[in-house]
């Protein structure tokens, strides 16, 4: 009897990483997944860096021991830009696929040279983010827009709650600016929660822009690191979600089940 194949672990502070899970399933259909939402720590954007770093590194000590995943996809910009290097140093035998602001592809695609990065305050202030701009977008004008409340709004929105247009616009309005007759033409969605609201953003935007979602690129990187094994047959209904609070409410449980995840 052969051992069951190891799952792919997908980690986020909340439900935002489901946008990445969706793309991973398309490119890795033979694999099973465990989705871990650190809802007890949500939202990460409001944490002090030292405390959040300790929390995530210690949490992964338990997760890797209990779940023994093939690889881990950190589907959270705030987490990976802060602790990606720490995780790789602390657990050198394990492979982590990170999520970082899609600044390089934005710089390659922009026609106006005006790019905005919509992110949590934590991601905006990271040296990691500014290094990406310096390395890949020095020829562009990149505006960093930190939103305190948008991740929370996205969680409410995907659960079916009403989110006022005025509240959303207050969070995204600074992404739109003009300079020397040119306008912003790309907004990088640097939080995996935000793509859930992309249609709302498009409707409220004062002019059309390309809303850049990195989920597919993350999935492609994971696929490169885990070669296709056609001998594997994913177990139906084997994908599961683990919430660190241990207390998923009805709407969260229903949402996870809608993504084909058994909730624990």
Describe this structure in words.
- Strands 4-3-1-2-11-12 form a six-stranded parallel beta sheet. It has a four-stranded parallel beta sheet with strand order 6-5-9-10. It has a two-stranded antiparallel sheet with strand order 7-8.
- The chain is globular and about 60 Å long.
- The mean pLDDT is 92.
- The protein has 264 residues and is α/β, with parallel strands linked by helices.
- The longest helix has 19 residues.
- α1 crosses α10 and α2 packs across α3.
- The chain has eleven helices and twelve strands.
Blueprint of the fold:
Elements: E1 8-12, H1 18-27, E2 33-37, H2 49-67, E3 72-74, H3 77-90, E4 96-97, H4 103-109, E5 114-119, H5 121-125, H6 127-136, E6 141-146, H7 150-158, H8 165-172, E7 178-179, E8 182-183, E9 186-189, H9 198-204, E10 210-212, H10 215-225, E11 240-243, H11 250-258, E12 262-263
Parallel strand pairs: 1-2, 1-3, 2-11, 3-4, 5-6, 5-9, 9-10, 11-12
Antiparallel strand pairs: 7-8
Low-confidence stretches: none
Tally the beta strands: 12
Report how far the terminal alpha carbons are from each other: 27 Å
Largest beta sheet, briefly? 6 strands, parallel
Note the run of SSEs as H and E: EHEHEHEHEHHEHHEEEHEHEHE
What spatial order of strands do you see in the largest sheet? Answer: 4-3-1-2-11-12
Rg on CA atoms, Å: 18 Å
Q: Helix/strand-derived class? A: alpha/beta
Mean pLDDT: 92
Shape: globular
Q: Hey, roughly how much beta strand do the residues contain? A: 15-25%
Number of helical stretches of at least 4 residues: 11
Percentage of residues in helical conformation: 40-55%
């Amino acid at each position: 009897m052969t051992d069951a194949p190891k799952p792919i672990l997908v980690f986020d502070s909340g439900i935002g990483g489901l946008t990445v899970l969706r793309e991973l399933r398309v490119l890795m259909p033979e694999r099973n997944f465990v989705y871990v939402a650190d809802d007890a720590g949500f939202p990460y954007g409001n944490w002090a860096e030292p405390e959040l770093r300790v929390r995530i590194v210690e949490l992964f000590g338990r997760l890797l021991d209990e779940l023994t995943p093939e690889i881990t996809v950190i589907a959270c910009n705030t987490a990976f830009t802060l602790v990606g290097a720490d995780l790789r140093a602390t657990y050198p035998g394990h492979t982590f696929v990170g999520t970082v602001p899609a600044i390089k592809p934005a710089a390659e695609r922009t026609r106006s040279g005006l790019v905005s990065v919509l992110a949590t305050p934590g991601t905006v202030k990271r040296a990691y983010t500014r290094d990406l701009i310096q390395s890949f977008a020095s020829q562009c004008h990149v505006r960093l827009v930190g939103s305190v409340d948008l991740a929370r709004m996205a969680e409410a929105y995907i659960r079916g709650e009403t989110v006022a247009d005025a509240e959303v616009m207050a969070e995204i309005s600074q992404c739109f600016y003009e300079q020397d007759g040119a306008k912003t033409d790309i907004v990088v969605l640097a939080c995996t929660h935000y793509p859930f609201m992309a249609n709302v953003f498009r409707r409220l935007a004062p002019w059309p822009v390309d809303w850049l979602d990195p989920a597919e690129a993350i999935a492609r990187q994971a696929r490169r690191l885990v070669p296709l094994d056609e001998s594997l047959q994913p177990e139906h209904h084997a994908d599961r979600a683990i919430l660190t609070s241990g207390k998923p409410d009805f709407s969260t449980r229903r949402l996870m089940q809608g993504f084909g995840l058994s909730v624990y």
